[in-house]
Every structure is written in C-alpha cells, then in structure tokens.
Amino acid sequence: MKKLSIFIGLTMASLAVTAQKHDKSADQKNIKDMCGCYEVRFNFAETFNNAKDSTYQASKVKQVGALEWVQLVEDKPNKIVMQHLLIANDTMIIKHWRQDWLYENTNLYQFYKDKTWKFEKLAKEDVKGQWTQKVYQVDDSPRYEGTASWVHVDGKNYWVNTTDAPLPRREHTVRDDYNVMKRRNIHAITDYGWLHEQDNDKIIRDDKGNDFVLAQEKGYDTYTKVADEKCKAAQDWWKENEAFWKIVRNKWQDLFEQNKDIELQKSVDNKPLFAHLFAMPANSSKKEIEAVIDSFIVK
Questions:
Q1: 276-292: per-residue pLDDT in tens?
Q2: What pLDDT is stored for residue 113 in this prediction?
Q3: Can you tell me the distance from the alpha carbon of 186 to that of 162, in angstroms, rounded to the nearest whole number?
Q4: Is residue 276 in some structural domain?
Q5: Cα–Cα distance for residue pair 35/31, rounded to 1 Å
Q6: Is 168 inside any structural domain?
Q7: Considering the domain boundaries, does residue 126 fall inside one?
Q8: Residue 162 sits in a domain of what CATH number?
Q9: Pairing assessment for the beta strands 193-205 and 107-113 based on DSSP bridges
Q10: How many of the other CB atoms lie within 10 Å of CB of 251?
Q11: How far is CA 188 from the centre of its chain?
C-alpha cells in the first residue's frame, strides 16, 4: 500500500511538472499563424438581457463579411505586432485594429470606462509563460488587453482571456445604454485559418465602479485563409503608409511607458482622433502627427 501511495505521488508530481511546461516556439508560431490574407465573417447576436425597462430593445443580429490582410509588423522573441487592414471593393483600404503580443509582460492598461484606462502592474510570477494580447483602436490608441497562456493540447491550439473594453464600433454609434463590454476572447488556430470567439457582457458601470450586466452577446468571427495575392492592394497600401503609422505607434508607446492612467478626449474640433489621423498625408512630419495625438490626451 505504501509503495502504491509513493507511485501515485510520483505520478501526480510528474503530471504537475508536465502541465507546467510550455512551448514558447509553439506559442510564437500560433500567433504568427494569424497573419496573411483572410476572408472574414463577423457574426454577433445578443443572447440574454437583464433590462429592468420593458421597452429595452436588443441589438440586431450582425453578420457581415470582409477581406482582411493581417500584416506582420514586428517579430521579436518577446514581442509580435500585427496590423489588420480591411479591403473594400477590392481597392479601398481601411486601417483596422492592431494586436500586439508580449511575452511575460507585467504592464497593462485596463479599460475602466468613459475613455479612461488604468495602469496596472502585475507580479512577474503571475505572468510566467503567458502572453499579453494588447488590442488597439484604428488610430492606435488603447482598446483592451489581457494576459493568459497559449494552450496546446489534443491537437488544439488556443488562448483565452477575459477583460474589460470600450464599446465596439458596431455598438458605440447606435447605443448609449451601457458603457463597458466585458470580453471573453478565445483565439483558436483552426484547419481553415483561425477563429475569434467571444462571450461578452454589456455592462453599466457607475462612478463608484459598481457594475450591472445589462445584456450578453455571442461573437463568432471566422478567418478563412486565402491566397496572399488576393490582398495585394492592402500589402501595397501598407508599404506606402507604414512610416506614418510607425510614428503613431512610437508616440503612443512613449505615453504608455509613463506607466500612468490615460484619459482621452472623445473629440477635438468635433472629430474623433481616427478622423484627424486618417485625413493626414502619409508624409506628415513627426511633429505634426504627435501634436494631433497630444491634443486628445487629458492632462
């Protein structure tokens, strides 16, 4: 009996050690597997609501397709940067969201509400083996971020995290009855490309930080890999505009490295930040670009 107990103990210890091991190279490969040309299908449907008002109207089901190029911008051992570019009518390019992946990162900007992000410092032991996904708006301002481990098991490769975020673009122009979206994001590599699955809470957060879950929704965005040649227009656009957006990224990075809470103006001269930046020539100077971004920072 004693030998059996020792055997079981050693087996459990061995399993624990095995469970703690992770393959960083597999993580990196899975992250970069999201790059390339994709036919995307965005699908969102509200599932439940807890509204106290009987006149509450749920968001309409949204299903829309697009062609999207995911450009690998930076590829370092502990940092991978990818820019999404939407292609409309074969030639029109729309700069979309950006995702950065940082290995064992301890500095996060957590969305609070009302264009405010709070800086949070994590302990090194709490992020061991993990990757932070930092998601940015179309103007490279902060959106949401969270840290978790990539999982490679039974032939499946995925990453799961729950974090607070501003309202998505499909909602913030039509709804003002909630001010925070708690996003449960799943990024999974599939045989057709990759999947971005979401289970989201639509939250009303008051000034004391109290939350009321108004409604919930399901998101199911499929990225089906197609030939890179189909996204040539986006690749060409990026070559012409990457210097401009590098200045924008660097400016934001300077602000992030101050490790202080960030609050942004909703608009300047009745226009949001992305409208100002999108209207600027690709050869705009560093000084001009930084001045525009500075005008949105609440001091």
A1: 999 999 999 999 999 99
A2: 95
A3: 9
A4: no
A5: 8
A6: yes
A7: yes
A8: 2.40.128
A9: unpaired
A10: 18
A11: 14
